[in-house]
Amino acid sequence: MTAIVLGIDSSTQSVKVEARRLDTGEVVASGTARHPVTTPPVSEQDPRAWWDALVEATRSLGEVRRDVVAVSVAGQQHGCVLLDERGDPVRAAKLWNDTTSAPDAAALVERFGADTWARRTGSVPVASFTISKLAWVAAHEPEALQRATRVMLPHDYLTWRLTGEHVTDRGDASGSGWYDPVSDRTVDEFLAAAVGDWPGALPTVLGPTEAAGRITAGAAAELELPDGVIVGPGTGDNMGAALGLGLRAGDVAVSLGTSGVVLAVSSSPTHDTSGAVAGFASATGAFLPLVCTLNATKVTDTVARWLGTDAPGLGALAMDAVDEPGPTMLVPYFDGERTPNLPDATGTFHGLTNATTREQLALAAHDGVLCSVLYGVEAIRSVGATIDGRTFLVGGGSRSVAYRRRCADLLGRPVTVPSTDETVAAGSAVQAAAVVSGDEIDTVTDRWRLGTGTVVEPACDATERRRHYAAISG
């Protein structure tokens, strides 16, 4: 028997499952299934659809399922799952990119002050945070909150369906708004401000390699997995990506997917009273300062449709304008924006003239998305994190030649595109391997040779484009 671990990535759009050899990390099978489509500002999904998708994706793995010894889940951060006493959702889960709770987040910040929030939890709440969504439910659907007996994050829900245990990890908990990752405690007064005296239970926070439990007989039967499979604590998707890249202190990852993310591994906590940098915890015991935007590759997909092409076609057009970009630039706030905190904003093309070409529009779309996201690099440096290590580009956008090239050009430094596309699934597999083997997480990532890939060097100096974007985006 070759021992197999499963790494699960439950994202906004789909679930992906990777089966990897415990000893070498080799991917031996993978499966995927779609989640229901959402359209912000109201972005909600029934958590039971995540389980159904996980069952479908896992069953598609084939015979390797019989050799599975451990599994772990990395899921989309911040979502708010409320279950009743029978374990059924009292309403659809509000996801991270649901911006309807923006006024509730603002009220919470006003009550205690941004400095207090940053000092106590590492972050200043915005609409995406779980505590903001809890406050929205308390204000708008109090009867639903009263029926709820427990709250959890999306990855916690899948761990609960696997084990029956109501648990989380410090990485995902650090994005809830009620947890202090430095002291490892709940900030009770923040939670009370959101939900009053609601007696519902919070998930227990586990350590980086502490098992959540073993798979239940019912879950094993549904997934067609062996009895007794060990389940890791899981984590948030960004923390999972850091594991899957084998990030060390000083390394930076830029992720281009539905959202845009810049994160770095820091050995010490960060606090940003502006709210731009979230002072999250990592899934290893360190810290993970992170900047997130709502808008990334969905923007270039939309612009491609407007120009009568697809994403690769738009990338090819963009590359044809690199030498003559013109003044055109896109501020890509198509779905509102989280960083900066502008939930009602819209996208804007600047510098359009009668001489503007399709190629320049395509380049402006790519550069606008990247300039918006890459603001996070300077923001993380400004709060004291050291980011002099490697830079990685991950997510669906990393497959684009245009995004690869322009990321290096705009940053002015080499960018590594990792060999594996599925860094979040790889990271949750790393965690599962560490839990079942007793090895340190870094030992697993070294043995599996994670963090290797294609290095893209800057081909031109595009730093002036970033300065131009900063001027027009305000």
How would the global form be characterised? Answer: globular
Strand content: 15-25%
Distance between the termini: 59 Å
Q: Which residues sit in consecutive blocks of at least 5 with pLDDT less than 50?
A: none
Range of helix content: 25-40%
Label the structural class: alpha+beta
The number of helices is 17
Largest sheet: 7 strands, mixed
Gyration radius over CA:
21 Å
**Residue-averaged pLDDT, rounded?**
95
The number of E-state strands comes to 24
Short account of what is shown:
By secondary structure, the protein is of the alpha+beta class. The chain has 17 helices and 24 strands.
Description:
With 474 residues, the chain is of the alpha+beta class. It contains 17 helices and 24 strands. Strands 1, 2, 3, 5, 13, 14 and 15 form a 7-stranded mixed sheet that branches. The protein has a 5-stranded mixed sheet with strand order 18-19-17-16-22, with helices on both faces. A two-stranded antiparallel sheet has the order 4-7. α2 (102-112) packs across α4 and α15 (423-437) packs across α16 (441-447). It is globular, with a radius of gyration of 21 Å. The protein starts with a strand and ends with a helix.
